[in-house]
Amino acid sequence: MSGSTAAHAGPVMTMLATASDGAVVEIPAGSYREQLSFARPVTLVAAEGPGSVTIRLEKPCAVRADTELRGLTIEGAGLMAGGAVRLKLSDCVVRGASSTGVGLRDEARLTAQRSHITSVNGNGLFLGGNATARLIGCELGETAFSAVHLAGKADLELEDCVVASSREHGVRATEESSLRIDGGSVRESGLSGISAETTGRVALSGCTVHKTERAGILVGAGTTARIDRCRIEEAGGSALVVWTGGTAKARGVVVAGAGKNGVFFADDSHGEFEDGEIFGTAFPAVHVGERADPVLRSLKIHHVDQDLDIADSAKPRLSEVQVSDVAVSTLPPPGKDGNEDAEPESTLDELIAQLNNLIGLDSVKRDVTAMINVMRLARRRIEIGLPPPPTNRHLVFAGNPGTGKTTVARLYGKILHAIGMIEHGHLVETDRGSLVGEYVGHTAPKTTAVFRKALGGVLFIDEAYSLVPLGGGNDFGQEAVATLVKLMEDHRDEVVVIVAGYPGEMHRFIDSNPGLASRFTRTLMFDDYSSGQLAEIVRNQVVEHRYELGPGTEDAIIRFFASMRREAGFGNGRSARQLFQVLTERHAQRTAALAEPTTEDLVVLLPQDVPLPFADPEPAAGAEAQAPAPQPAPEVSQAPTTLA
Fold first, then answer.
1. Closest alpha carbon to 291 in 269, 263, 317, 262
2. What is the CATH number of the domain that holds 440?
3. Which residues, in sequence order, are bridge partners of residue 429?
4. Where is this region: Disordered (predicted)?
């Protein structure tokens, strides 16, 4: 059976030389130095169980006939099978090989159970040609090259195996090879955990990929991979990478920490990521490259700096994407970029009616109506081939808090969409905290991410003056403003930007940058609500919550608002909503004292439910008069309530 002469045969080869074909040869416990090869079918068994026999090979063992090894430890060199042989390993260890641990080519077939291939200076397991292998409960690792490498049309199944500590890839499939991994883990790889760069079949299920230097799982160009119920932890690069031309269909995948993106869809890639979870990534949870068209469905993203990074020409389809504890959210609103949960759209006439039905804001309504007429005209001129009149859609909303600025901004975007001036008409609300970073190089990406979320709609920046605080200095807000100015120029026809805040502060903001002054040429003034208008807001709240105002109650409400000081920070609509809450609380305390309250008692708000008007005492010498907190009605005992 040996390829060497009898003079050079070791004890094991001597036993094999006298064995018949297909014999079971039991090897006594011990350590043997051999030049071993198999040319006839045989089974070698460690007589006293796994680990009792060590065979130190002087060169790789050639397997040229069906061979089964049980409980043996092979050291110094590996096992090389070719032709159409069958090699079976049970409870074996192959370690310390100077090149490949176990190699198969041609039509060779390997079945291994509870065996280890470790500490080798090449691949742990190499399959080429049409070789096939099935490993169950095995361990492979501590390899100088990839722990597992597939080439040609090789086919490998790993069930509940552990692949660990490879200097290159954990498992790599190339050319036309096929790979199935069910359960088990791949960890501590110098490159990718699993690298599928093949046109063959790739199916991964229930496995964990942990602590790789680069990608957790790489789906290469031309590769289609199914990935079910896998977990990718602490990848040094992106957890799941789908390269250009690749397709990944992932379901129930969890990404827990990554040095880069959680999922990276490269340019022109495809796939699905469904019922998954991503958290703890250093880069955006999901990157979608140019022209990539993945489906993201039932996805949970949390505890990341940014949720999505979507290229301009990407076409992702989004559905039921949930985001929480995210510093910068660029999740498109319902109906944008394939999100299937779109809210019903209103007609232009319905939107204009909603604008006109807002309480107060007469000058704002006139200005918006005038702009709508100009834009409708511009649209019609474009449709018949005429140049449009000059328009500037970006606006400054100047006014105190609670004057309806956000409500008007939302309607304005929807109206522009109904006219056809912008693609989606959604509103993205933001402020300094979402635009300005905490360290050098952080602000521009944050600002760009928020801006991109608003493409096709309205970017509403509340308290915009806070981007240029008094004193200036090295504040990063100036970088956010410069980034905004450039983005507004680059996407002049794709977005509307509205900046809002106190009138005086907004003048300072616009004057802080020449680019702002040229882009914001129109200011809409949001005046404070009158006492009667504030009372009307309260009345709307009363109707919405199915209460009623008793005789004299509305007059008491008007008197209350008339007595309020209109100082800086006056709450307007917020004050009206707060008063309604106080009304219901005082009404509840009053009716609680009734033994058997009637339906009318439970519904009607009476004048005594309205706090007393603010007093206006004479100011002390050298001091300004301050408005005291409203006092409760004499017949109701409760703590004073502050509405300002």
1. 269
2. 3.40.50.300
3. 460
4. 614-644
